[in-house]
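Hi there, hope your week has been kind to you so far. No rush at all, and the record is pasted right below.
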Amino acid sequence: MSHLEERMEADLNHIRDWLWKLGEAVEHALRNAKKVLVLRDPTMAYDIILGDHPINRDSRECDRMCHTFIARYLPGAGALREMASTIRINVILERVGDYAVTICREALQLEGPLPDRFSSRIDGLADDAIEILAGSRQAFREGNAERAIALMQAAKRMEGRMEGFYEELFAEDDRMDAPTMMAIFTVFNMFKRVADQAKNICDQTVYAVRGVAKIPKVYPILFLDQRGSGLGQLATAIGRHSFPGSAQFTVAAPGGSDKPSPELLEFLGTTGLPDSGLETEPLEALAHDFSSYVVLVAINGKVADYVSKVPFHSAARNWSIPAEADRAEQYRALRREITDLVTLLAGETPEQG
């Protein structure tokens, strides 16, 4: 190894250690901010708030070192990706430090302890978010893309467990004072953002290790239809044929499962669309899984006819597909709507074939 290579390796390790220590300081601030929520200790809160200034200075220094490293050594692909990811993760950690400050400021506004059921929910969320953040930092330090991907899935599962929190909170509108409600809302959001930022660190780990800018996202879409119409089944076949890597399509109808009719199967055969796995799911069986879908699409009627309340993180679409039209016309209308929707979500056009 030449002297230049030794110097480059030493500088690279110094930046790695600097980023790790920055992350340790941020994580320590988060753990203490969680304690402040329970103890409501002003001294501890202000220590965290004032302690954010050294974190910001260290973040600026990390940014300077990364840009100096790139300018001085003009590194190859691997080291260059690591520097690019380090610059982004440095920004992420500085933001997470700001979240700890916000949590402390909100805790100082509370006149009493948080209500037990919200306190326990926030406590569990905080533990999960901090654990995922710690894991994401370790994955980047080790260059472990597989662990980063697993942590992203864990963060996604955590989001699913958060469903319903906002409804519970706003249901307390008549029994809870406004400052307490706002503090709970803000603190919950801060810890949720910690998990979101941990996912971003995982994305950067995969990029640094594999050169993949971002793992392609697959969007779950649920078609809502009436039994016997075949529109939802046709839409599912079109979606799976045109966007196999961008979205997952499911069709559900009230009143039980429903197989494709012989007439629809014949049409699918003539157009080259897939004809397997198109059985309609019973809507009632999916009632507790609506939140796992990014978009709920009513092909027959309106979403409100099928779902009493659209989940917080889902969106709804009502499509006017003529039920009396022939299959060819329905096919063209559905293909146009599906293409517009998936292009909006994923920015992709349908595959040819």
